[in-house]
TrEMBL record:
Cited Gene3D superfamilies: 3.30.300.30, N-terminal domain of ligase-like
SUPFAM superfamilies: Acetyl-CoA synthetase-like
Lineage: Bacteria, Pseudomonadati, Pseudomonadota, Alphaproteobacteria, Hyphomicrobiales
Domain of life per record: Bacteria
Classification via PANTHER family: FATTY ACID SYNTHASE, NONRIBOSOMAL PEPTIDE SYNTHETASE
Keywords: Ligase
Keyword Hydrolase among UniProt keywords: no
Organism (species): Nitratireductor mangrovi
Protein name: D-alanine--poly(Phosphoribitol) ligase
């Protein structure tokens, strides 16, 4: 964090400093294109000069990812003292329009792929000031990043610690995603704790496997920029063959969701000794199966391997467990423990009345720290529901179930609600159901995560009761309002939906029916068999 007693703070401050110390060192590499630290700082400074006089809400949308423009846009927005708001390129137009209206952006930065999404409806909802990458198709009235006036590198605007650094969207149960607002102070606290163990230097070549809409990108980007490391951005194609990317770029630091390891193992790609260049491997976002992490450790013999845990609402992560020999395993789950909290965190395990459970019992993981987000953008009720004052302290209720063992190590024990992770994407099943019901024109509809392999969801299945229909047409219609990864891969028309003792749809019974159905290999059966 750029801290200066006179100028205040700016999250781009470290980038500004790095551009002075190692100006010619590569900051971001995308395919064959590279931006040095000086080049990145120059374009961020030029962008900031355009943005600064236009800031009203101080929010700048980033409709760009895995491109130089995405990083120029983020750095430029930060430099200007704005809040950067990544918008997902996988969102359909309807969702982009709804969120842009809600956000009232001052400006929008687009790369080539982002520009393609600017149809008439999106342009109408977008701010007047659009800044496009040089390789984007023409956008009416837009400025080009490469054509902005270059007056050298000016210092970034000082901002107070409570200023919002970014807003990161994640699935919300009411139909639209919810925006997690993270302050500069929370980000500073995160970096302070994380640099202690990540230890980035100018010698590091860091693989960026995530879109900038995912908060793991915050970790890589800000740690790299302050240390002068190089970010190597993976394309969607690189994600299919990560082994090639890591080897050809001699990557030293890797971070991803565990799903990628599972995928490599399934394809027989994770060979012993494959990654000699890696010194740090970090996994996050989902339970980390022990066989998978051990296979990775054999593939990366010179690497420390860490499992980190945390929701976006606590600024990336707050707990960490190193892979040891033997591993610290979570009983009966064959996954690695989530470990011990960061020094700046208090962790509690609560019962349903927010009272601590005795050690050794399962409770909801609650977190308290300077890293906690300010809450959800424009959603005071939801914020009050998840961020609670308890005995004079502000806690975030994660919805994760956990247990603390006799050594003070925490273990993840699943969820207390219907939030799932699908290939790293955080999804509230209720959000998918809301769209399913609207599209199918019935309330008798439910969605389950299925199948579950090694504790991880592999897909979504929709159930619709009491009517027949065209599953493919329904899926197509859902894609108008949901990103593809949230559209169920299969639609089952059933006579009725099973109910549990509380009269709610029994998702467990539906999943059990799918298990039986797939074991039988008989697609013609109907889930009426599971109706009590
Ligand atoms: P996100 O906000 O997308 O980072 O998702 C946060 C959620 O992912 C947490 O609340 C957990 O449910 C899950 N999660 C994150 N890290 C881990 C981990 N290391 N092990 C198990 N679950 C995790």
């Amino acid at each position: 964090m750029g801290r200066d007693s006179e100028t205040g703070w700016n999250i781009a401050g470290p980038l500004f400093q790095t551009a002075q110390t190692v100006p010619d060192h590569p900051a971001v590499v995308v395919g064959k294109a590279t931006l040095s630290y000086a080049e990145l700082a120059r374009s961020a400074s030029a962008l900031a000069r355009v943005l600064r006089p236009r800031l009203v809400t101080r929010r700048v949308g980033i409709l760009a990812t895995r491109s130089l423009a995405a990083y120029q846009g983020i750095a430029g927005a930060a430099w200007a003292g704005a809040t950067y708001v990544p918008l997902n390129l996988k969102w359909p137009a309807e969702r982009l329009v709804a969120l842009m209206k809600e956000l009232a952006l001052d400006a929008l930065v687009v790369d080539r792929n982002g520009a393609r999404l600017l149809d008439r409806a999106v342009l109408e909802a977008a701010p007047k000031l659009i800044i496009a990458s040089d390789d984007a198709a023409a956008v009416p009235g837009a400025l080009r990043i490469g054509e902005l006036e270059d007056r050298g590198i000016e210092a970034p605007a000082p901002m107070p610690a409570e200023h919002s650094a970014y807003i990161m969207f994640t699935s919300g149960s009411t139909g639209l995603p919810k925006g997690v607002v993270v302050s500069c102070g929370s980000l500073a606290a995160y970096l302070h704790e994380t640099r202690k163990w990540a230890g980035f230097t100018t010698a590091d070549r860091v693989a960026e496997a995530h879109d900038v809409t995912f908060d793991l990108s915050v970790h890589n980007m800000f740690l790299a920029f302050e240390a002068g490391a190089t970010l190597h951005i993976m394309s969607t194609l690189d994600m299919m063959a990560p082994q090639r990317f890591v080897r050809s770029n001699e990557i030293t630091a890797w971070m991803s969701v565990p799903t990628i390891v599972a995928m490599m193992r399934a394809n027989g790609l994770l060979k012993d000794g494959l990654f000699p260049s890696l010194r740090l491997s970090v996994f996050c976002g989902e339970p980390l199966p022990i066989p998978a992490v051990e296979a990775w450790a054999r593939a990366a013999p010179n690497s420390v391997v860490e499992n980190i845990y945390g929701p976006t609402e606590c600024t990336v992560v707050c707990m960490r467990q190193r892979l040891t020999d033997p591993p610290v395993a979570t009983p009966k789950r064959n996954i690695l423990a989530i470990g011990r909290p960061y020094d700046n965190f208090r962790v509690a395990l609560f019962d349903g009345d927010q009272k601590p459970v005795p050690r050794g019992e399962i409770g909801e993981i609650a977190l308290s720290s300077a890293q906690l987000s300010d809450g959800y953008f424009g959603k005071p009720e939801l914020t009050a529901d998840r961020f609670r004052m308890i005995n004079g302290e502000r806690w975030y209720l994660t919805g994760d179930l956990g247990v603390e063992d006799e050594n003070g190590v925490f273990h993840h024990m699943g969820r207390a609600d219907n939030q799932i992770k699908l290939k790293g994407n955080r999804i509230e099943l209720e959000e998918v159901e809301m769209h399913l019901r609207r599209t199918a024109g019935t309330d008798l509809a439910s969605v389950v995560a299925w199948p579950i392999v090694d504790g991880s969801a592999q897909g979504l299945v929709a159930f619709i009761a009491g009517k027949d229909g065209d599953g493919a047409a329904l899926q197509q219609a859902m894609m108008q309002s949901l990103p593809r990864y949230m559209v169920p891969q299969r639609v089952v028309f059933a006579e009725r939906l099973p109910q549990n003792a509380n009269g709610k749809t029994d998702r467990r019974a539906l999943a059990a029916w799918l298990d039986t159905d797939s074991a039988k290999g008989d697609a013609e059966t109907s889930p009426q068999a599971v109706v009590a």
